[in-house]
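Quick look at the format.
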Amino acid sequence: MEAQSIRGVRVHAYNDLDSITIDQVPIPDLKDDQILVRIEYAPINIIDLMQALGYYNRQPLPHFFGKEGSGTVVKTGNHPYARFLLGKRVSVDSNVPGFGTYADYLVAYASDAYPLRDSVTFEQAASLIVNPMTVAYMVEKLKQGNHTSALINAAASGIGKMLIKWCKLLNITTVNFVRRQDQADILASIGAEHIFNTSNDGWKESAKALTTQLGTKIGFDAISGSATQDMLDLLENDGIAYIYGALSGEPAHVSPMSLIGGDKTVKGLLLTTWLARMTNEKRVEVGYQIQDLIGSALKTDYISEVTIGEVKDALKQYAAKKTDSKFVVKIRRG
């Protein structure tokens, strides 16, 4: 029997997680380039918290949310690529306004779906896009510039750990920054070689000696605020810092002389921009590349599995910004 409605998690007021409710709405008619995915799993990422609070992709309220997930395509529009996906297991990115993956069904663009290999489980595939593909974008930047070393702050984050592991496979040295000893211990446990705790005295002087020795000219900044200037200070002349997050909640602090005197650059790095430049065939190729590493370098570890009804409480815990506090939502039961 064909599904008639969508049941899932909707936010009703920005900056108020208590406004989240479980709602049900009719499934709309699909446009030619759209698909309907029966969702199995969806992770909770920082981008989901930001959307719930109204800091990212602000939409008319109320709306379903959840950025990525996995499931099966059960209905499609008339576009050839959409029809190609019918019946396929996919990882999917949510970009159709009003819809999200914390729901039993998702209306999505066909171009945002990535067919899965038989060996990849729905649980693994739930986190195939946001973090792993951002890391793939970073690796492309490293390869384009023939870089042999890179700086990573917030290095104990999901993206940070994935980038460290992928760089090890490529023999690229990473210089990693955290702010607590437990985070440093996590990085040591995955084989990170150079780890600096920014809460310790003298960390920056020691890091600068190393980056000078390595000739490091690229860094990935998840924090912004004063961390951006710290990264620029550690890069060699003609270096570039890519900002891909703002965990500090502050604008990037940059000295003009860092840019002028050292001919250094600060740029944004946004996964959506990269993917938008690709053909459907290229996106599928990148998806398979990610799947080849999803059980190893790009593995996502969850601390807990929750239900749709527990998303609100899980988001509140995630908002505490505890390292490794990654939840996965199991949409279907039984």
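Next, a different chain entirely:
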Amino acid sequence: MGGAAPHIIGILPARWGSTRFPGKPLHLIAGKPLVQHVWEQCRKCTRLDDLYIATDDERIFAAAESFGAKAIMTSPEHPTGTDRLAEAVRSLPQVDIIVNIQGDEPLIDPALVDELAAAMAADASLDMATAANPLDPDDPAVQDPNVVKVVTALDGRALYFSRSPLPFFRNAVEGLPVYRHKGIYAYRRTFLERFVTWPPSPLERAESLEQLRALENGASIKVLPTHDTSPGVDTPEQAAHVESILTSQLSHP
């Protein structure tokens, strides 16, 4: 007794005013704006019914339309990308599930986006889905507060996200990796609409991690292990690094 298949979209939030890298979405990498590379990767997805770029800036909006993307203008006043996402979805009443794809990951694996969409479509009890990379417990990243870790229940649902080492290995446990959280999310529309009405929660404020607001309010978040470690672009130096990867891929397809 299945109902109609859920309508699933991808949204790439792209804002101009990054403090570390203003105008980042339009930074040219191998001759194309950064956000266009992400959009082209996501066009390879098979589980998305549609794909949009949500922006607060006319320049990004115009660029998106020029390379054929559907673009949605949103307010520049949003405190977080999730609020921008929720505003964009208001103009799309047909949508059931939204995959929020970082607009600064030009090497994102389309298969991961499809996996998140499929996980949400397959289990109506999920409010959200996200991804994580397995790390060796001895990897220095485990101790780095800029690297967010996640631990899961036996069924793969998130128990906690933290900047601290997680879990703390009082005892060695064979085969138990540490998971580095990867910032890509799928949301059920009904949950996203509730989420943005809640005030920042105590643990969210302590760790400065928005996903803790979802957990503190009882959300069910599936965490998919992935080996997609595609780097994000936060600085011009990282843009140059990604350009060298893309250039080598283009010359050795």
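The first strand starts at residue 8 and ends at 14.

See the schema section for token definitions.
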